[in-house]
Amino acid sequence: MSSPEWHFADFRLDLANACLWRRAEAITLTPKAFEVLHYLVTHPDRLVTKDTLLDAVWPETAVSDAVVRIAIGELRRALGDIVRAPRFIATVPRRGYRFLAPVTQATPPEAPRLASPAPLLAPAFPLPASAGGHVRPTAIPLVGREAVLGRLQEALAQARQGVRQFLFLTGEPGMGKTAVVEAFTAQLTTDPTVRLASGKCVEHYGLGEPYLPVLEALGQLCRGPAGARLGALLRRQAPTWLVQMPWLLTAADRGHL
Predict the structure, then answer these.
(1) What are the structural domain ranges in the chain?
(2) Which of 16, 170, 196, 238 could share a disulfide with 3, CB 3.0–4.6 Å?
(3) Which residues contact 137 (CB under 8 A, 6 or more apart)?
(4) Of the candidates 11, 15, 19, the residue with the CA atom closest to the CA atom of residue 89
(5) Backbone phi, then psi, for 72, in 5-degree steps?
(6) Enclosing H/E stretch for 49
(7) Angle 168-215-70 (CA atoms, 0-180°, nearest 5)?
(8) Tell me, what's the pLDDT at 7?
(9) What φ, ψ does residue 6 adopt, rounded to 5°?
(10) Which candidate, 84, 87, 94, places its Cα nearest to that of 49?
């Protein structure tokens, strides 16, 4: 069944392809900006607070509310909107945002299915549910990534021997860096000797939270099965980091710290 589309002015929000269109022109948006626009478009002419957008687009993620302002700025540039005379996104001072344009929903006709040969795939791995609760695909089509996956396996083997290291996976946007990382980490989700966590870097304007991605990853681990052990370790070795996760603090911790 085809995914619904939302139309407003000359624009079309295409969920199936995660794309914004101006007539026949595709407009590139970052994934989070697309999700913010999706939420606003599906709640038109309604006040949407920053907290609501943070809960909807960045659930259980340690980010500052500046990420909302950054996403709104990106959307205004993409839509050609003007802050002082908005056609699409109006700012409600100190409260949030309101999507102004009339919105209609339509379901595009389903394209006929054509038989095609199966693509050559690298070994595919089952993926866990994402942080937002959506189940990711159970296989990732990866082509020509065996060398990268092999390098990650080598680094894991060294880490098991106590060799601390950073690896940087680089490349142009759309090359499949995220897919490679997800395929690699999916192999480790059932390994009881491995703890996995992730943190995201977002662009800030003005003051930002130092080490925010690291704090986000630590917060995930502290909520997991090894949370009590990691909390005790932080209490001994890094109490100032523990302060950044107040849900782990006891009354004695607060008095001491």
Answers:
(1) 5-106, 116-194, 212-256
(2) 16
(3) 127
(4) 11
(5) -65, -40
(6) strand 48-49
(7) 80
(8) 93
(9) -115, 130
(10) 94
Q: In what order do the strands lie in the sheet with 11-14?
A: 25-27, 19-22, 11-14, 5-8, 104-106
Encoding tokens for residue 38?
A: 């999706």
- How high is the pLDDT of residue 138? 44
Q: Which of 59, 188, 75, 220 is nearest to 134 (CA)?
A: 59
Question: How would CATH label the architecture of 5-106?
Answer: Orthogonal Bundle (1.10)
- pTM value is 0.46
Mean pLDDT by 10 residues, the chain (257 residues): 81 88 88 93 93 89 83 93 92 93 79 44 40 43 72 85 86 77 81 81 62 80 80 83 74 75
Q: Which amino acid is at 183?
A: A
